[in-house]
Amino acid sequence: MNLFKPANGPAPIAPLSSAFDNDHTTRLNLTLALFMAAAFVVFLPAWLMDTRLLDSAHVWTKPQKFHVSLGLHFLTIAVLLQLVPREVRTGPVLIIFSYLAAIALVFEFAWVGIQAGRATRSHFNYDSAFEGLMYALMGLGAFLLMTICMALAVQIWRKGDRARKGLWLGAIVGLTLAFLSTLYFGFTMSSSGRYVGGPLTGGGETVPFFGWSREYGDLRPAHFVSLHLMQTVPLAGWLADRYGWNVVAVVAGVAVVQLGVAAALFFQALSGQPFWPA
Hints:
Strand content: under 5%
Helix content: 55-70%
Number of strands: 6
Radius of gyration: 19 Å
Structural class: mainly alpha
Shape: globular
Largest sheet: 2 strands, parallel
Number of helices: 10
Order of helices and strands: EEHHEEHHHHHEEHHH
Strand order of the largest sheet: 1-2
């Protein structure tokens, strides 16, 4: 099945975006999403068979979370790119930010996988000067992975398809809030650590797959909720378009509620309370 719209001729009508325009920027972001999906499958045997633990979690759980999260990230970007005209998608702004995100993805994919194979932390690792440098570079990589969100939000605001007002507004709000809130929560974690009231290595019970501590305050649930504003708010806007709901009320309501949940989880963690007590 061809995922892309033909370069010439009418584009098929899709309920959200089951077909993508065949331009360079769309292909790049969709390829990165498919690469992450393939990586998840390739790493499955190691994840299921390697019994080593790192910070109370299987060593391959972090790479697998990384694959799922960034696969969804780039798929979302590919979908929302369809809101701007082809000449905007293939213009220098979105091309440059897409390639910066791609470079960051390749770097983080390699380092997270290498460290998992060594049963060593890729994040919060200052065991050597080199590993401390790599952690700092991963912070830069995370920033570059998110800048495409802000760049796309600006382009949708300036030149996006306003015929679908809910999706247009939801994309702008969701991408912008995801960028700003994720940077804030990510910076807080990078400077103070992921746990509050517990050691860096964690310990005790954790939430399956996610690895969030059930023993200590953990800043990662707030980071997770804020990051996925880039999916939930555009989806809410699309639903408002589809069912004739009040666009502003729906988009603003979902954004406020989700930000409120992220803030509540953040302050809960700062107080030393776990997301889901054991």
